[in-house]
């Protein structure tokens, strides 16, 4: 009788393992974010791979938008732009302005200037031309503009999730991940996602952090409102699922052993 029961036990255990295996895909789907319309072939991510190109062109420079907060200064003489007296000690401080909903910035002396739709360099050149004309008539001003509220959202398997300000014109994915505390041991380093552009049809970029060639790609330089998502790796997801399954496996084994014991005792009394 014992030999007849063992195959039954093996069949039940095999069925249980099969259920766990086939449910792993569903578990991974439920515990990862930002699924693309097409299924990613991980082998295609050699260094940087664009999965979805999106409806917006890939812009390498920040475009000034409404509600941007910017600093503007003339590196030759900040006081002339700020409207302060030349005798005041303010030479290293930049003035902060918000781009209003009417697309303009209210600047001292020259009034409102429309900067929306321009890159930083284009806006600097526009202000340079304005400041060279009356009433200021500056000679070869050096205008510096910095967008201070440009940000990137970082989610997933990093040391610290959150919103991070882009404090300079070109910030790479490597620098951002460093600020976020680096990748965790649970991270999938071959498929780090950058999501950018129109939220209705975003561009989705996968970066293989194991390949040093990614350092040469312009795609890893971040833009305002980019989302960086680091997925958990398959091993971590599988281990997490197994840990959640163990209590059910223990209960199943206990019930099975109890049933076999009752059956054995009942047969021994015959």
TrEMBL record:
Keyword Transmembrane: yes
Record domain Polysaccharide export protein N-terminal: where: 58-147
GO molecular function, one term: porin activity
InterPro entries: Poly_export (IPR049712), Poly_export_N (IPR003715), SLBB_dom (IPR054765)
Subcellular location field: Cell outer membrane
Domain SLBB: 151-230
Superkingdom of origin: Bacteria
Principal location: membrane
GO annotation, biological process: monoatomic ion transport
Regions that span the bilayer: none
Tagged with keyword Signal: yes
Topology versus the membrane: Multi-pass membrane protein
The entry's keywords: Cell outer membrane, Ion transport, Lipoprotein, Membrane, Palmitate, Polysaccharide transport, Porin, Signal, Sugar transport, Transmembrane, Transmembrane beta strand, Transport
GO cellular component: cell outer membrane; pore complex
Similarity comment: Belongs to the BexD/CtrA/VexA family.
PANTHER family found in the cross-reference section: POLYSACCHARIDE EXPORT PROTEIN GFCE-RELATED
Protein name stated in the entry: Uncharacterized protein
Species lineage: Bacteria, Pseudomonadati, Bacteroidota, Sphingobacteriia, Sphingobacteriales
């Amino acid at each position: 009788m014992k030999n007849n029961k063992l195959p039954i036990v093996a069949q039940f255990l095999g069925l249980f393992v099969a259920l766990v295996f086939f449910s792993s895909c569903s578990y991974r789907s439920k515990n990862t974010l930002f699924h693309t319309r097409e299924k990613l072939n991980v082998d295609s991510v050699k260094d940087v791979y664009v999965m979805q190109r999106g409806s917006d062109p890939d812009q390498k420079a920040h475009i000034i938008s409404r509600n941007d907060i910017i600093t503007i200064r003339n590196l030759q003489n900040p006081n002339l732009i700020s409207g302060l007296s030349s005798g005041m000690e303010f030479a290293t401080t930049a003035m902060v302005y918000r781009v209003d909903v009417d697309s303009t910035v209210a600047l001292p002396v020259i009034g409102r200037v429309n900067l929306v739709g321009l890159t930083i360099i284009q806006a600097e050149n526009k202000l340079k031309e304005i400041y060279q004309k009356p009433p200021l008539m500056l000679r070869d001003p050096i205008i510096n503009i910095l967008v201070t509220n440009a940000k990137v959202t970082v989610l997933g398997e990093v040391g610290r999730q959150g919103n991070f300000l882009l404090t300079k014109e070109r910030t790479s994915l490597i620098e951002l991940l460093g600020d976020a505390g680096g990748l965790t041991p649970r991270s999938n380093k071959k498929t780090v996602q950058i999501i950018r552009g129109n939220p209705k049809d975003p561009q989705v970029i996968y970066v293989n952090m194991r390949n040093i060639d990614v350092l040469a790609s312009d795609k890893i330089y971040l833009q305002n409102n980019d989302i960086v998502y680091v997925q958990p790796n398959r091993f971590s997801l599988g281990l997490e699922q197994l840990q959640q399954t163990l209590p059910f496996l223990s209960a199943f084994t206990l019930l099975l052993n109890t049933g076999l014991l009752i059956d054995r005792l009942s047969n021994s009394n015959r």
